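How it folds:
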Amino acid sequence: MKSDKQFSDSWKQHASGESRYLHWTREEPANQVQLAFRSHWLLFQELLEKHPTRGKKCIELGAGRGTMSMYFADAGWDCTLLDTSDDVLGIAKEAFEAHGLGGEMIVGDATATGLPGGQYDVCVSIGLLEHIEDLAGALTEQVR
């Protein structure tokens, strides 16, 4: 498992290249990764139609550059992005601003956010759990 410092260092090393590439697009997906994230978004939309929420507040834990949050924000959701790396949240902020999207960026731990429970209508994470040793703690925090 990578430490928070290793993740932060990894984002810093790729700050001008790969980490700035967006997996989100308003257009047709241009590659397999964009197609995969678009497919995730379509599934979330389908689930939300079947199980409507009280409001439209979303948090993405382990947000990275915020791909899923960009889909939610583009659909009118109030999004919070949480990640251990301030560097990657800076990249996410730049991407959000470049596309006219709003979102709150918070540096924090997905297994213990310190945020009040019941504050969000949807909690998402893609590619997070494989990096966490305490899966039960992470899932409990997501449900909370």
